[in-house]
Amino acid sequence: MIYPYRFVLMIFILVYCSSIGISADRNITRLLVGFKQPVDLNKILHKVTPLTTKSFYNEKLYCLDIHTNNLESIISQMTSDPMVAFVEIDRSWFITTENNKGKAILEKQAMPEWLDIIQADRLNELDLGRKVLVAILDTGIDLENRYFQDHVSVNPLESVKDGIDNDANGFIDDIYGWNFGDNTSTTQDILGHGTHVTSILLATFNHCKVLPIKINSGGNFEFKTSALVEALNYAMLMGAKVINMSLTLSEYSESVHFAIKTAYESGIVLVAAVGNNSNQIAYPAKLEEVIAVGSLYSATELAYWFSPSGEEIDITAPGVKIDVIEIGGDAFYATGTSMSAPMVSGAIAALLDMNPHLKPQTIRNLLSDSARDLGTPGEDDMFGAGALDCTQLQKIALPMLTLPTTPFYCYSKKIPIDIEYFLPRFDTDVYIYIGLKKDELIWLLLPEGTWQLASEVQNGYVGFLQNYDQSTKGFLFGNQGIFPPLILSQWMTGNYLLGMAVVDAYGQYLAPISWSYVNIF
User: Fold this and answer.
1) pTM of the model
2) Which residues partner with 502 through β-bridges?
3) Are 329 and 106 in contact (CB under 8 A)?
4) Phi/psi at 158 (5° precision)
5) Residue 101 — very low, low, confident or very high, per pLDDT cuts 50/70/90?
6) How far apart are the first and last CA of the chain?
7) b/e sequence 279-293, b meaning 16+ C-beta within 10 Å
């Protein structure tokens, strides 16, 4: 999110000439108007006749294009109405990035260091094949890039460009997302930023789907507040579970905050870069509903020359000279907090792939509790909770059984053993199954403490936890356990697996089965 040299002059001119909400026709201004509840717009506007109107969020937010004449009196009239929550003029903002010039062939290249720092490979252990949808609000992505082709979300009801809104969602031919900067279905990236962000997301966790939502207009990095608001609404409409925003606003926007709160309350996890102004954390990262991500330049050091500090920062991830995929498929190096945010979004996608019931606050807690502490012990204004650590994240997100450590996992029939359990928060009703497996046979532990072949049991769960929204650990078997110490004398000598499965009310697994070797002699 720091400008490349080739765009400096262009950006300078755009910044100098940009206006607040004035369209190509300088006599027209776009207003964003929020209401406390759905309303009849005509009763609010009275004598004002908008040139165009567009409503979102069940008619609680409107975009109005009006003549600029008497703008102040029009705004005054609307804000005085008790039903109006806010009125703001559409603003221009910029997506920016710094790219270091080293080019290389990506294929067969050694694993980039940043993947080692965050230990991204551990996220694969959370994958249950749900293909969580992550919305990338950016400059679009390289749709023709072969690295992305299996990951770009395709709207099944708009699979052919026929000029018809087949799914009646208000967007014609939105096969691969939507372009809110130009109000078209073209989400192909021509600047590279969104492509870089997407490549980092997929390198972090390769088992998700990507919804490209382009918010910039034309071939520049400019985007409007209204485009961001509409993009957030579209992401929610299309079923995104994670929204990545590698973009910044230098000032607070009520309409953006309204859109973000609505998405958050619907269960979407929102992630944003904190910006590259080392003096101040930018919006929307500054909002409490958003997970704010800063940048490291090594495993332990903050990229202090651009990554800002502040109490709003939640977590950090590598952000300097990050290997990314360029438009066309070549490798590139990119720097900025824009590159750190999709690493966190990828980790979140992995958590939701494992358990789609997890709430945004639970995910924030998991990231915080698993972060590698840096700087002042505990949370601080430089690193937040610390650095993204996917190994620790995987450990605290998975249910687990822990047996006493023995050579070669060998346990005597004559010696009772204690077994500990750990259950993370699931945010839903869960059924717990404990099984002992040998070859093709599985015995299930029943609530009364007996074991029975799974094929002979109709409901073989050992426990039911209603709306389980806490993490617990203790002894499953032991003198202070749920059951007495486990005695293995009833089992034949041989190699077994002891496992725990957790499923929801629909029979969906909420974690990979946790198996432990048990060699009985």
Assistant:
1) 0.91
2) 432
3) yes
4) -130, 40
5) very low
6) 61
7) eebbbbbbbebbbbb
Q: What are the tens digits of pLDDT across the range 332-359?
A: 889 999 999 999 999 999 999 999 999 9
Q: Using pLDDT thresholds of 50, 70 and 90, give the confidence band for residue 81.
A: confident
Structure tokens at 366: 């998991």
Q: Identity (one letter) of the amino acid at 291?
A: I
DSSP state of 456: G
Q: Rounded CA gap, 276 and 165, in Å?
A: 39
Q: Are 431 and 457 in contact (CB under 8 A)?
A: no
Structure token digits, residue 272: 């944003």
Q: What is the dihedral of CA 248, 254, 259, 262, to 10 degrees?
A: 130
Rounded Cα distance, 520 and 408, in Å: 11
Which residues does residue 137 pair with via DSSP β-bridges, in sequence order? 213
By three-state DSSP, how is residue 4 classified? Answer: coil
Alpha-carbon gap, residue 160 to 99, rounded angstroms:
36
- Phi then psi for residue 490, to 5 deg, are -75, -10
Q: Is 142 exposed, middle or buried (0-12, 13-18, 19+ CB in 10 A)?
A: buried
**Longest CA span, the chain:** 91
Rounded Cα–Cα distance for residues 50 and 455 (Å): 68
Are 382 and 303 contacting, i.e. CB atoms less than 8 angstroms apart? no
CB atoms within 10 A of CB 122: 17
For the packed helices 337-354 and 193-204, what is the interaxial angle rounded to 10 degrees?
40
Q: Is residue 377 pLDDT above 50, yes or no?
A: yes
Cis check: omega of the bond before 284, within 30 degrees of 0: yes
Q: Which two tokens stand for residue 65?
A: 């294009």
CA distance 453 to 456: 5
**Which SS3 state, helix, strand or coil, does residue 2 take?**
coil
In the sheet where 52-56 sits, what is the strand order?
52-56, 61-67, 28-35, 84-89
For residue 91, the one-letter residue type is R
Residue 358 and residue 351: Cα distance in Å, rounded? 8
